[in-house]
């Protein structure tokens, strides 16, 4: 039986057991009602105690989840065991999910140590409040000449306005559409005439200049009548972190992190400390190694879709000509071949290769830019890139995605819609073994990809543990 079939059968069994449990609980409740029995709660018991009133109605419920992590000495894989304990003193029963909070209380998560961890799951992002949603505004086309727009993360971000600008456009806004049509380049908003309808929204932290500072003074624009654009109010206190969008000799246009809708002017004379944002995983890059055909690129795409607020990737360079339908900065960054050769000579390329007389590759600066945005940069890279990245600057978490043994690989291939030949499968296995030997000392996790969903879940679980478990890294990374 394959792992996928076994998983399907286990889910079916769990569903049947759940139904049986509900039937039994319903019978218990009916019998207790018939016999007139009532359960009284003992309020003096320890943490797992609930209290009831005379009618048997629930007043309190305690949920505890104990989590233990063990390492298999043979395989080196981590095993997580989660035990949920509930104490109920009423005649009302309901199931609780292991990976979600109690309907009435937040579970107490306990690791194998003594500390409590209240980390939100990787996939959980902030709720999109109305002020962060897209809005439409109609402006005179001439107003667009009063703002400065830069391209960040493939989006047009307003970085600077002046006194003549429209009140509805603020620093940090992204212009996504003009008259209902998507825009990607500065030229798309130039040479417009008459009234135009803009669709704008606040840019994410990662889609604006990565220029962060911690304020050490107090400033309130309400009492500063000399500031430009009097309709923009901003107040900062010591400890506030700001994102600088643009700057001149006297003023800088910024927004406060924590509430990106708070934008305005601050004097450049303010005392500040330049800071950088770190991703919460203790590593700066995630390197996915694997032979072609092992599914590492699919896993990378799934991770980027799951949590774009935690993970990002680079746009590779190429010297070939741009093709119809391609957008600069989306599929590739199109540069001259001489520029790539120059980066190679200067040691500025993580990896590169040549195909049909054209160069392709990953620049180190593009990786650095993603790291500065505070996210973990995900790379599906070639083995030689590990030597470049394995240092204190990039601090990689290296994952090797491998196929199952050839016999099992052949059986799994038989259920696919399109079949690869036995020779192709053997080639994938041989290449995976070769990568494993070349990078043996630098691989932190090996994932056998029998089922893409299960493999992805194991990767996410491993990334979760990086947030709260002790990590052991080369001593040189900490010097």
Explain this structure.
It is a single chain. A hairpin with a 3-residue loop joins strand 13 and strand 14. 22% of the residues are buried. Helix 2 (296-306) packs across helix 8 (452-466). This protein has helices spanning 3-35, 296-306, 337-345, 364-372, 384-389, 406-414, 422-438, 452-466; strands at residues 62-71, 78-87, 108-110, 135-140, 148-152, 155-160, 173-178, 181-182, 195-202, 212-215, 219-220, 235-236, 241-247, 251-256, 263-267, 272-275, 285-289, 311-312, 317-318, 333-334, 349-355, 358-363, 376-380, 396-402, 445-448. Residues 37-61 and 87-117 have low confidence and may be disordered. With 479 residues, it is of the alpha+beta class. It has 5 domains: 1-37; 38-118, no CATH class; 130-207, Pdz3 Domain (Roll); 212-275, SH3 type barrels, CATH 2.30.30.40; 285-478, Rossmann fold, CATH 3.40.50. It is globular and about 70 Å long. The chain is built from 8 helices and 25 strands. The strands form 6 sheets. Strands 4, 5, 6, 7, 8 and 9 form a 6-stranded antiparallel β-sheet that branches. It has a 5-stranded antiparallel β-sheet with strand order 15-14-13-10-16, with no helix packed on it. Residues 31-61 are annotated as: Disordered.
């Amino acid at each position: 039986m394959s792992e996928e079939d076994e998983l399907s059968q286990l889910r079916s069994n769990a569903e049947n057991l759940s139904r049986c449990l509900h039937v039994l609980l319903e019978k218990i409740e009916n019998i207790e009602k018939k016999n007139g029995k009532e359960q009284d709660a003992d309020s003096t018991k320890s943490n797992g105690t609930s209290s009831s009133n005379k009618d048997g109605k629930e007043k309190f419920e305690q949920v505890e989840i104990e989590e233990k992590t063990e390492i298999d000495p043979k395989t080196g894989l981590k095993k997580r065991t989660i035990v949920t304990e509930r104490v109920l003193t009423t005649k009302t029963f309901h199931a609780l999910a292991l990976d979600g909070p109690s309907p009435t209380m937040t579970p107490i998560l306990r690791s194998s140590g003594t500390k409590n961890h209240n980390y939100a799951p990787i996939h959980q992002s902030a709720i999109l409040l109305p002020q962060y949603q897209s809005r439409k505004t109609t402006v005179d086309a001439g107003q667009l000449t009063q703002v400065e727009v830069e391209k960040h993360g493939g989006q047009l971000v307003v970085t600077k306005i002046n006194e003549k600008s429209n009140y509805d456009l603020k620093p940090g806004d992204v212009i996504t559409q003009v008259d209902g049509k998507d825009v990607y380049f500065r030229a798309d908003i130039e040479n417009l005439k008459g009234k135009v309808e803009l669709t704008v929204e606040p840019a994410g932290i990662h889609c604006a200049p990565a220029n962060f500072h911690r304020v050490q003074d107090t400033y309130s624009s309400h009492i500063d009548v000399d500031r430009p654009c009097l309709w923009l109010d901003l107040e900062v206190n010591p400890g506030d972190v700001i994102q600088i969008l643009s700057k001149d000799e006297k003023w800088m246009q910024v927004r406060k992190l924590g509430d990106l809708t708070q934008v305005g002017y601050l004097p450049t004379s303010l005392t500040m400390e330049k800071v950088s944002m770190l991703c919460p995983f203790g590593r700066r890059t995630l390197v996915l190694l694997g032979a072609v055909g092992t599914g590492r690129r699919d896993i990378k795409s799934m991770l980027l879709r799951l949590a774009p607020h935690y993970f990002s990737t680079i746009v590779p360079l190429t010297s070939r000509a741009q093709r119809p339908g391609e957008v600069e900065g989306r599929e590739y960054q199109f540069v001259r071949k001489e520029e790539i050769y120059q980066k190679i000579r200067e040691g500025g390329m993580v990896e590169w290769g040549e195909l049909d007389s054209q160069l392709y590759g990953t620049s180190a600066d593009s990786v650095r830019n993603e790291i500065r945005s505070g996210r973990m940069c995900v790379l599906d890279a070639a083995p030689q890139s590990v030597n470049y990245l394995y240092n204190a600057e990039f601090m990689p978490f290296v994952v090797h995605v491998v196929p199952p043994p050839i016999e099992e690989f052949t059986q799994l291939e038989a259920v696919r819609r399109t079949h690869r030949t036995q020779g192709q499968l053997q080639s994938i296995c041989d290449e995976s073994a070769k990568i494993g030997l070349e990078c043996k000392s630098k691989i932190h996790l090996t994932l056998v990809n029998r089922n893409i969903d299960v493999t992805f879940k194991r990767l996410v679980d491993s990334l979760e543990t990086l947030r709260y478990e002790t990590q052991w890294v080369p001593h040189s990374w900490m010097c």
